[in-house]
Design brief:
heterodimer, A: 98 residues, mainly alpha, Recoverin, domain 1, two-stranded antiparallel ribbon, 4 helices, 4% strand, globular, B: 382 residues, alpha/beta, Rossmann fold, Cytochrome-c3 Hydrogenase, Chain A, domain 2, 3 domains, two-stranded antiparallel sheet, 7 strands
Chain lengths: 98, 382
């Protein structure tokens, strides 16, 4: 029994270490839950936003534009962290209101 | 169809004028001919133009509009019986001409006002022939069927009404709202100055169709002021792509990038510059490399530096609409783009964000913004 427990702990250890390195997801668009938004995940979000805007037509005229991936990914590592997202939202131009 | 006073202007010029006016008012293609026919058979509209606390810029704009002399064509359809700046008569003769018009055309003349009206010190800050502007405006409004407030000063008070507003300057709408002058149907054509063709298009519309065009909540013609500069901006693509000039002489400015970060107020300014343009359809300030100053909006002078970033303004948008813009500009990056799927209840959102107890909300939203966001969420998620 003890041996099985130790074996289980040993097996689980790498997973625990990885989990400690992985920040908790901050966005519903982080579909793989790795704590970052990848370019593919962001593209999927952006495409969905644009389709919604097109469907809404004039109701959404003058809606704030959708930021580009490269505007948010300030360290250019190909993925968006929580800190980068907060920075980008804080500094984005506040768009039209009607 | 014969053009009016055909000896003085050609049929071609007359039809061109009507076509331009119809196009500017976003009327269907056939409207130009209807407009031309109606204008040709309608007697000239008696019009009195009063100038109060102003700089003559609005009149300058009208008289310098594009060839073939828009104002000459315009004067074929209206009878400009009194105009402080343009009339040939002077002194007592001018006053008599105005009084005669007020008497002869009582109840059916169109009044045009440029400049704001001082109300402090008994109106003593601006008088004409010993009569205060306020008294003159009141008397003329009694005889008018409607009034067109030309320019930002007449519409919203403009520069004379800027803080601390020593003369107690007010626009026509505010004077009416406070009961200082008689109520009449009002059209506001703000701008410093307004696009000249906007003035002539509205006057032509009134002559041709016998009524005033559809207006927005600030009494501006919807066809002319229904969209912001931003919506028709030639630099809009750069805005969408996130390309902003940071300085007037940087590479972005030279490449024609968006001027938002240099203080462009195009996103909050409703005007016809982007569609009609200036100097005979040549260009706009933004196209020429300068940010929009927002000259057609209320509080134009009191909204800080021309070169400060545009700030949120109501612009007739409801709080819920402002809240929607906030949600779509911020929340959608981490939450569902469909706000009905947000777990928090609308009434909890402001408290959660103020409390800073939840992660990833370290950016600040003001009280007004939180109230707007709550209104929006309540609207979509009752």
């Amino acid at each position: 029994m003890t041996a099985r427990l130790i074996a289980l702990l040993l097996l689980a250890l790498p997973a625990i270490v990885i989990a400690a390195d992985t920040p908790p997801p901050f966005s519903v668009h982080d579909t793989d839950g790795d704590g970052y938004i990848s370019r593919a995940e962001f593209d999927a979000f952006r495409a969905r936003r644009q389709a919604e805007r097109a469907a809404a037509g004039r109701q959404l005229r003058n809606a704030p534009r959708v930021l580009n991936f490269d505007e948010i990914d300030s360290d250019r590592d190909g993925r968006i962290s929580e800190t980068e997202m907060i920075e980008a939202l804080q500094h984005q131009p506040r768009g039209p209101q009607r | 169809m014969a053009a009016p006073h055909a000896t003085r202007l050609s049929r071609r010029a007359f039809l061109k004028f009507c076509a331009q006016a119809a196009a500017l008012l976003a009327l269907p293609p056939g409207a130009a001919r209807l407009m031309a026919a109606a204008v040709a058979r309608t007697p000239r509209l008696p019009l009195v133009w009063l100038s109060f606390q102003e700089c003559t810029g609005c009149t300058e704009a009208l008289t310098r509009s594009e060839a073939p002399s828009m104002e000459r064509l315009l004067f074929e359809i209206i009878s400009l019986d009194y105009h402080h700046t343009l009339q040939a008569a002077a002194g007592a003769a001018a006053e008599q001409a105005r009084e005669r018009t007020l008497k002869e055309h009582a109840g059916r003349l169109l009044l045009v006002v440029d400049g704001s009206v001082p109300t402090a010190l008994g109106g003593a800050c601006s008088t004409s022939a010993g009569e205060s502007n306020l008294s003159l405006l009141g008397r003329c409004l009694e005889a008018a069927e409607a009034v067109v407030a030309v320019g930002t000063c007449a519409a919203f008070g403009g520069l004379p009404a800027a803080a601390p507003n020593p003369t107690g300057a007010m626009g026509v709408a505010e004077l009416m709202a406070q009961g200082k002058v008689p109520l009449r149907p009002l059209v506001n054509l703000p701008g410093c100055p307004p696009v000249p063709e906007v003035i002539s298009a509205v006057l032509t519309y009134r002559v041709a169709f016998g009524h005033l065009p559809d207006l927005d909540e600030r009494a501006r013609p919807l066809a002319l002021y229904g969209e912001t500069m931003h919506e028709r901006c030639s630099r809009r693509g750069h805005y969408e792509a996130g390309r902003f000039a940071k300085q007037f002489d940087d590479d972005g400015a030279r490449a024609g990038w968006c001027l938002y970060e240099l203080g462009c107020k195009g996103i909050t300014t409703y005007n016809a510059c982007a569609t009609r343009k200036w100097n005979g359809g040549t260009s706009t300030p933004i196209e020429s490399g300068h940010p929009c100053l927002g000259c057609a909006e209320p509080g134009f002078w009191d909204h800080g530096s021309f070169y400060a970033k545009a700030v949120h303004t109501n612009n007739g948008a409801t709080r819920a609409e402002q809240g929607r813009a906030l949600y779509e500009g911020n929340c959608v990056y981490c939450h569902d783009t469909d706000p009905t799927r947000l777990r928090a209840l609308p009434d909890q959102v402001a408290k959660l964000l103020r409390g800073n107890s939840i992660r990833s909300h370290r950016f600040q939203l003001g009280d007004d913004e939180l109230a707007a966001l709550t209104d929006y969420l309540k609207e979509v998620k009752p």
